[in-house]
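Good morning,

Both structures are done.
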Amino acid sequence: MHKLAMQPVSASWTPDIRPALPITSVCLGWLFVLCFTLPARGGAWRMVRLASFPAIVLLSLQLVLDRRMTLGNPLRDLALPILAWTIICKAAEICIVFAPGGPRPIRPFHNSKLVTRIGEDYAAYEWKLVDPPKMASWGRVVYALDVFLLRRVGTSPIRPREGRALEWSLRGLNDWSRFLRQNRCNPAQIPAHSTVRRFGQPEMAFYAAVLQMLFAVVSLRWIHALSHPCQVFDIYGFWIPTSPASQKWISLLPITAVKQIRISGIPASAWKLPLPTLLFVVVTVGGAICLLPSAAEGLSLLVWKPRPATSFLAAFERPLTSPGLARLWARSWHATSQRDYLAMASLLPGSRNRTLQLLYVFFWSGVQHSMMFARLRIPEGTRLTGRTVLGGMVDPGMVGFFLCQAVGIWIETAVVEALPATWRKQRVLVSLARRAWMYAVLLVPGCMFVHSILQHRLITSAVLDGFSPRALALMLQGKAY
């Protein structure tokens, strides 16, 4: 590994995940055992669940702060805090949200009779609450697996033909069946921006998925090219790096900047980048988050057909063409994470108030992303007090970006509700205005998000080179690249 002038704080380039294995095993095993105690409402089990929460949180935080656990690259190491966050959110859901008992299972019914095997006539089913299985039964094991693994709305992928789901999916499944019944259509005919969820369908068709994946890859390649030291000149409004490898295609990007700017890699501050470049980096980071996973899901559905359709729900729902900011965050972005934020929001006072709940959800979103960079924010050797850990896990740029999304949704909702009836009839103009507002709220505060990433030196040639096939192969062998 060559030494860089701009190197991540205390970066370790030799993978070692062995210290993470016992902690992860204990936390996940403990949570799975607690799932067996649900939906028991007895006081003893409730106290066991409540007492388990702080212990699981303290254990999982070691995945965030202990630098002995590493994947050999500071950007790859973000996977460890993500795992810790997932454990903490699941613990909050099992130990606190469902402390009084729950969630209750739901099953499909046809003509008031329980269906034990779902067919393709989805419109005929109605999901209803059923009694939980007894503690000492195989059914309780399956129920515990469902509570432990289910995160998206829909039915369980374990023995999927049974159509098992949990009570928080009741409305989504019944609305979907009712839509199919009233419109006499099949799941593939539901419009992309319908009011019901599109179970069993990819976010994008095959060719669209390929195109968006190519866009994300090319954009990331552009960031990778800029992370290498190169001389940049402005000729006819184009940036042309002198690096021969990237000069051929990078010159096609119409990014106007000041003349004869020298970039020695990506700077440590977003505010040192020319505005067009900064906005393009914001778009690239956001695109990498949503385009690559959704494209991968779309491609996987070419060889895997989910049966029943309710066992699959795309993680994204065309966020690029979302009709507004509120719809983007409520339906189009990360279906796998929404329950996590709602569970964490319920821990704060007044969370039943919709306005406060919205604020809490985005606050926890910012905390999650701050946790991902905590080990880079806390210098090595620092005594880990409560104040130190809290400061490391609340990144102003990350939290600020997500709180801006909450404010943006408030403004969008208030303006739309205040519009005169005659203005609301101008649906095309209203739709264009809402989309323009959505992209403005994403791009402008997104500069704070990118600034936090650049501060942690996560966009350098050494870091980005860690995602080449050779580097990933070496990681699996426990070797530095």
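Second structure follows.
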Amino acid sequence: MLIGINLSDPVFRGRYHGTQRHDDDLEDVIQRALDVGCKKFMVTGSDLKESQHAIDIARAYPGVCYATVGVHPCSAKHFDEHPEGPSAMLLALGDLAKKAKESGEAVAFGEIGLDYDRLFLTPKDQQLKYFEAQLELAIEVQLPLFLHSRAASEDFERLLGAKLPQLPKKGLVHSFTGTLEEMKRMVEMGLDIGVNGCSMKTDENIEVVREIPLEHLQIETDGPWCEMRPSHASSKFLKDAPPLPKAVKKEKWAKGFMVKGRNEPVTIPHVAYAIAQIKGITVEEVCKATWHNSIKMFGLGEKIE
């Protein structure tokens, strides 16, 4: 199970900064992950266009890929830049979410939230305005939330606190890098916590992961970003982890190889392995719990056994 993967990113089609460096290998990327036991992919929508791309991927891989629909806080300025105005874009986003929910291709509303680390991309007032507007849309469509929070916990929790009671399945704070206290407050609100490589960079991060209740944990890679690196605190928990496929520089790409610096879904076992080592439990326990939590919240074409 993989609840955060940006498969619509051009790098999975061999394009880097607008230049085609190697063949489109999206199918191989998905197959590699299936081969290591990853059965479901939740493809992240980050703006109106990328949400449609995520739906297109879900349509191309039925029963395997599912989409989220929403506008990332760093892209929230797109609402005011829309040729027909913010109301028209909100309407288009809502229509897209409703239709994709009905077809079974969209399972979450997001990636939405607040990011005060990157206010140079979208100022705070726009982030706040359109986070709230999208929360209203999520309530209207009745999809669980796929959330983003960076250095904004006070405003994030305030806005969510007013809206979450109207969403029975609540949602997930993905790629969590907050403090122990923030994590505990999120869990108390009924939210799940998404863990990937970025969630285990520091010793403080490790202590937070250790304390996340299993019944509120989900796992992700957030590829092509958030890879687990030897310099991260998580590396000491990967000593006996199963090996990954060989990675080469994009200029030397050949079929069957990963690309250095491009995180892939096939690395999800390392996320589960590190969490198991941190928590002192088995990998099977991590996988069983996180599968159950993801299916319970997002469905993904499965039923809880």
